[in-house]
Amino acid sequence: MRGEASLAKKSSGSKLPFGFAQDEPHSTDLQNKKREAGVYLRGASVQGAQGRMEPETSRGTTTETAHETAPVTARDGSPPHPSRIRRVFFDAKGIRPVWRLLIYFGVYIAIAGTLSFLVFRGAAFKMPEFRLGELLPREFIGLFAVLAAAGVMSRIERCDFGSYGLPWKKALGLRFWEGAVWGFLAMTVLLAILRAAGSFSFGNIELHGRRLLVYTCGWSVYFLAVGMYEEFMFRGYPQARLATRMGFWRAAVVLSAIFAALHLANPGENVAGIAQVFLIALLFCLTLKRTGNLWFAVGLHAAWDWAETFFYGVADSGFRGPGHLLNSSFHGPKLLTGGSAGPEGSVIALAIEVAMIGLVMLRFRGASRADRV
């Protein structure tokens, strides 16, 4: 028995590797119970301390944190309503469209006015003569101003500039040249019908040599700037913003009416000419809707004006510029010829534009994804 006891004593006191002693089972249970008792006592003391500290804490940091994290609500528990001033300037999508448009036109006027004053001084706000030397710099200033204003708005709104209708990846691409062909052919068909009716003569070629090259390039650059400036001014950023509030076609009608009204200031304009301007503005809006961007409209607009002013040498909204290719003339009733407004004031122009609206609807049955980007 003593041998077994001594053997058990030796085994219980034997050491494990690295100097750790093997504990007896009863000693391990005892230590666990002591450990649990210590945790219980410490927990009780901590809870007592917290109970004593509770009044002081409730007056201090804990209350402040609760105020910071708790959502602000009205008395009935509903979210608070925005202030009246905030509702005037903001809606659920941010700044209201009307204020965005005012910012846009404010930036445009500031840039265009400053540059015009620096370049033209006292003649900055006078009606220019219809010649390239005066027209080109004014048109470039206006174009730069509308593009810069839209660039500012794209930063404010954090959206891509191309979403306003002029994606630079598509600049002077296929859609532009297709629109240019449409514009030139439309004016040609209009004048051919007047010629067949005995109300128009194409005349002879008036320009040759160096003058032909200079005026061809000059009028081409000018009307490209006109097409981009006027299309983006009325069917670019303003159309995009107003459409979010009132829908695409309501915005198109409003902006087309403004576009037509501004042409009342042109000399020699008449009622039929204003109606034609309104209708062709809607045509441009339709091409925007169907192609997804303004490049077709820019090409059509530029080529229509280029053919009218330079190639055929007829009046454009009452203006007739120098340096035209053909020395043409009208001789017939104003209802057909358009009178002082030029062929744009002819009833034939209205009929051709109605036909073009139908052709655009057939040609572009829906905006393609590629045209939008």
Evaluate the radius of gyration: 40 Å
What would the principal axes of the Cα set say about the shape? globular
SSE order, one letter for each helix or strand: HHHHEEHHHEHHHHHEHHH
Identify the strand order in the major beta sheet: 1-2
Share of β-strand residues: under 5%
Distance between the termini: 98 Å
Q: Give the mean pLDDT.
A: 79
Q: Low-confidence stretches at least 5 residues in length (pLDDT < 50)?
A: 1-28, 39-70, 369-373
The total count of helices amounts to 15
Q: Helix/strand/pairing class, anyone?
A: mainly alpha
Characterize the biggest β-sheet.
2 strands, antiparallel
Q: Please give the share of residues in helix.
A: 55-70%
Number of strands: 4
Question: What does this protein structure show overall?
Answer:
With 373 residues, this protein is mainly alpha-helical. The protein is 67% helix and 2% strand. It has 15 helices and four strands. The chain has helices spanning 2-13, 25-58, 61-69, 84-89, 97-120, 132-157, 174-196, 209-235, 237-246, 248-262, 271-291, 295-311, 334-337, 347-363, 369-372; strands at 90-91, 94-95, 200-201, 329-330. A two-stranded antiparallel ribbon has the order 1-2. The chain has a two-stranded antiparallel sheet with strand order 3-4. Helix 11 (271-291) runs antiparallel to helix 12. The longest helix is centred in the N-terminal third of the chain and has 34 residues, at 25-58. It is globular.
